Amino acid sequence: MNETFEAHDSIPDIEYLERALSTPTEALVESVRRMEGDIVVLGAGGKMGPTLATMARRATEAASIQRRVIAASLFFEGRTEATLRRSGVETIRCDLLDPDQVAGLPDAANVVFMAGMKFGTTGQEAMTWTLNTVLPGIVARRFAGSRFVVFSTGNVYPLTPVEQGGSRETDPTGPIGEYASSCLGRERVFEYYATALESPTVIARLNYANETRYGVLVDLARKVWQEQPIDVTMGYVNVIWQGDACAMILRALEHASVPALVVNVVGPETLSVRDIAEQFGQLMNRPVRFTGEEAPDALLSNGLLGYQRLGRPKVDHGQMIRWIANWVMRDGQSLAIPTHFECRDGRF
Predict the structure, then answer these.
(1) Cα(335)–Cα(331) distance, rounded to whole angstroms?
(2) What does the H/E/C string look like for the chain?
(3) What is the pTM (predicted TM-score) of this model?
(4) 158: domain CATH number?
């Protein structure tokens, strides 16, 4: 690390947060130095895209090599595009559902695919399936032969007994609901094209990324701060700092293979929702109320393979909890996008 932000007890402002999130690890810098070709990040306008694209740019600069880092998205929010450009990332406005626009994107040896739909799935099932399964085929054909890392989700797994320690990559999938099923469909499309077009691919099953503006921990912190009851039926979760997740995912480009490799990108611990809420209560000096009882199963993933291939997270859950508690108590900015992690029926 070239910055020691992990030692700080608070995140003072948005600018500091975004710099902290996008700081590359030394291992990533070395990985990027070995990598050949440009990097294009598709669907870069979402929650994690700016962090990942900026981190790729910063890692490239730290490695002292020449490479284009290109972020493609519709960029509905103008500040995101401007911030990326200031960091040295090229931006292109592109509707990834339009084959002609995708065909016009510059060639790139390395593709990070982040596009998709989760929130608002219920009632928009047709659009969800289109974005999560049709769009991947357009992109996979356009960048045939490139190396891919494809964002996916731990939601493709079934609920598993808590004592099992989380689903492994070799375990059977069992998606619950239309969103999770469409995400498995996205994986299958990319797996097919990885082999058919000889495009080395990694499927990165993520859950759950957190920073101070959104995530499972933010959902819990805001409920505690507002003295709302915490439902503990989905009683256990995995969490990972967004910067750590992005570093792992960028390092995954080196591990792309044919057939596609599946890797879980998760935090190292199975955390109790009740314990997390009580920690927030202590830090915020708020009483904590609970509803429900912990179910014997939850949506959990095992991250061992990811740590072996991509390194371990640098920021632990205790640090995240302290940062987020401080941020929420100061009325820091929120993206106002609840994760619905407590959902057990797959309806998002």
Answers:
(1) 12
(2) CCCCHHHCCCCCCHHHHHHHHCCCCHHHHHHHHHCCCCEEEECCCCCCHHHHHHHHHHHHHHCCCCCCEEEEECCCCHHHHHHHHHCCCEEEECCCCCHHHHHCCCCCCEEEECCCCCCCCCCCHHHHHHHHHHHHHHHHHHCCCCEEEEEEEHHHCCCEEHHHCCECCCCCCCCCHHHHHHHHHHHHHHHHHHHHCCCCEEEEEECCEECCCCCHHHHHHHHHHCCCCEECCCCEECCEEHHHHHHHHHHHHHHCECCCEEEEECCCCCEEHHHHHHHHHHHHCCCCCEECCCCCEECCECCHHHHHHHCCCCCCHHHHHHHHHHHHHCCCCCCCCCCCCCCCCCCC
(3) 0.95
(4) 3.40.50.720
The C-alpha angle 329, 334, 340, rounded to 5 degrees, equals 105
Structural domain includes residue 97: yes
Q: For 102-148, what is each residue's pLDDT tens digit?
A: 999 999 999 999 999 876 677 889 999 999 999 999 999 999 999 99
Q: What is the pLDDT along the chain (348 residues), one digit of tens a residue?
A: 345 566 567 899 999 999 999 999 999 999 999 999 999 999 999 999 999 999 999 999 999 999 999 999 999 877 899 999 999 999 999 999 999 999 999 999 999 999 998 766 778 899 999 999 999 999 999 999 999 999 999 999 999 999 999 999 999 999 999 999 999 999 999 999 999 999 999 999 999 999 999 999 999 999 999 999 999 999 999 999 999 999 999 999 999 999 999 999 999 999 999 999 999 999 999 999 999 999 999 999 999 999 999 999 999 999 999 999 999 999 999 998 899 999 998 887
Position 253 in a domain = yes
Domain that holds residue 207: 5-212+240-268+299-314
Give a yes or no: residue 344 inside a domain.
no
Count: domains in the chain: 1
* CA-angle at 24, arms to 20 and 28, nearest 5°: 160
Residue 110 covered by a domain:
yes
